[in-house]
Write a structure and sequence with these properties.
Layout (H helix, E strand, L loop, with lengths): L2 H9 L21 H6 L3 H6 L1 E2 L2 E3 L6 H9 L1 E2 L2 E5 L2 H29 L3 H21 L8 H15 L28 H10 L3 E5 L14 E4 L22 H16 L3 E7 L10 H5 L4 E10 L7 E10 L3
Parallel strand pairs: 1-3, 2-4, 2-6, 4-5, 6-7
Antiparallel strand pairs: 7-9, 8-9
Helix pairs in contact: 5-7, 5-8, 6-7
The structure holds S-adenosylmethionine.
The site of S-adenosylmethionine has 21 residues, from strand 4.
Length: 319
Amino acid sequence: MQKSKLQSLEKGKTHKVEAKPFVKWAGGKTQLLDELASRLPFIIKESKSIERYVEPFVGGGAFFFYLKGNYEVKEAFLYDINVELTVGYKVIQKDVYDLIYQLEKIEKEYLKLPEEERKKYYYRTRDEYNRQQETFDYENYNGDWIKRAAYLIFLNKTCFNGLFRQNKKGKFNVPFGRYKKPTICDRENLLNVHVALNNTHIFAADFEESKKFITENTLVYFDPPYRPLNETSNFTSYDKDGFSDEDQIKLSEFYREMDKRGAFLLLSNSDPKNVDINDDFFDSLYAGFIIERVNAKRFINCDGSKRGDIKELLIRNYE
Ligand SMILES: C[S@@+](CC[C@H](N)C(=O)[O-])C[C@H]1O[C@@H](n2cnc3c(N)ncnc32)[C@H](O)[C@@H]1O
């Protein structure tokens, strides 16, 4: 994309733009987009426009970017507790050209290396990324953020399975991944993401903070970390961003509170009935709302050995 085209896109504040997540993220919702889109409120489908959008667990933002490509989203507020991810979003918003410059440099250096050397490069970068964390100023945006965002994207594109995972101390710990020619710098998409982030506010914070911006008719999409489907996939509680049953309960209370405000609420989660037909955890938490079960393809346990059609819950508070 030409700089002049980008500038003209930026001026037309609420135009549609085809962007997709700039990182691969656990629980990414690309597979579920059609199901989600078909359940948007009638008034939004009709008008093709969204006055205000809030996403309290944005992750890679698959649904947000989908909406930006198909609707006029006048204003958006995105939250995630993962501060590294929000560093990425903010840098794309503020300094996309510098980020592209750094990523192109990394890509050039990395791709010309033989595999063993790539592996060393990867672990060197991972170490530096983890070391940098100790002194990094997450509070005040500055030039160091660009390098950190470039590392985030590089590691995400070259690590095993392409995911972002941290240990209890918050250190990124995914091993090296073997790819022939990974795209480290997707220039076109980064520019599109930059444009999509126009009129968008990004926060590294707990989901409850988003209540400040939820008003009547705000569209809110909740995609919290999954409730583990069974014992073997139960590693969320040990995760840095673990989300316990108590958190799920707190979220359902939040949902009821926002319902009273007259916001449009759409929520997805794993369906515990996949493993225990008598497990009514979400059915009771969200009693009184519209609860649907749709097909979703994803791993049912953490070793990925059982993959198949399992159900996902979609819960909304409007017809
Ligand atoms: C299932 S993922 C969202 C995936 C996203 N829909 C996508 O398409 O990539 C859940 C996200 O919630 C975030 N999270 C976990 N606990 C949170 C909390 N208390 N408040 C806000 N975000 C939280 C995680 O960091 C993770 O990015």
